[in-house]
Design a protein that fits this description.
- With about 220 residues, the chain is mostly beta strands.
- It contains 3 helices and 12 strands.
- The chain has one domain: Putative cyclase (Glucose Oxidase, domain 1).
- The longest helix is centred in the middle third of the chain and has 9 residues.
- The model has no long low-confidence stretch (mean pLDDT about 95).
Length: about 220
């Protein structure tokens, strides 16, 4: 009996370091050492300080609405399962439904990952990125969208104060992944595994996100 062929894994998490660009004004990642073997301690112990929005993360509804569900209430089911990567890197501004409808015509769209080409993974914070139009977000929710992931810093535009896409998705019981690294991933269907860290009461949680090729 022949062995089952291995399916390729793609790590789509941004590498975290002190050089990882945070949202302007947010708390960047900083690392230090509590004890070092080189200084006579029996172990090396490190410490980390950062906003949970630095690098790849899942937003919680609490991020945009007081009293809403926090990071420890995020549904694991939304972050594990089949996902479709759609390349929108040639677009600017709002993404109309027609730009993604063709790709999703014959597949379920429970988890949609947008490859905008404006990732912080290269070490700089982008000036702008494309985002779903309100109509597109609403129509995707009607088709069963459970999670929207983006390789840019936000599902809303950089200057947004109303955060319309955030509110629309959360009101439709969908989850949000931000700051993915999709540079090495081609458009298509994959299995997504992107479990948020179980932190209590926060507005976001760091995520180690992976895509696995489907058989």
């Amino acid at each position: 009996m022949s062995a089952e062929p291995r399916r390729s894994l793609y790590d789509i998490s941004v590498l975290l370091s002190a050089a990882t660009p945070p949202w302007p004004g947010d708390t960047p990642l900083s690392c230090g050492w509590t004890s070092r073997i080189a200084d006579g301690s029996s172990v090396n112990l490190s410490s980390v300080t950062q906003s949970p929005h630095v690098g790849t993360h899942a937003d919680a509804p609490l991020h945009v609405r007081d009293g809403a569900a926090a990071s420890d209430d995020l549904s694991l089911d939304a972050f594990i399962g089949s996902a479709t990567v759609v390349d929108v890197s040639s677009l600017d501004g709002e993404i109309p439904f027609e730009k993604v409808a063709g790709v999703l015509a014959n597949v379920a769209c429970e988890r949609l990952l947008l490859k905008t080409g404006r990732s912080i993974a290269a070490g700089t914070f982008p000036e702008s990125w494309p985002t779903l139009s309100l109509d597109c977000a609403q129509r995707l929710l009607q088709r069963g969208l459970r999670l929207l992931g983006v390789d840019c810093p936000s599902v809303d535009v950089r200057e947004s104060k109303k955060l319309t896409v955030h509110h629309t998705l959360f009101s439709g019981s969908a989850s949000i992944l931000e700051n993915l690294d999709l540079r090495a991933v081609n458009p298509g269907r994959y299995e997504l595994i992107a479990v948020p860290v179980k932190l209590k009461g926060l507005d976001a949680a760091p995520v180690r996100a992976v895509l696995r090729e489907l058989t």
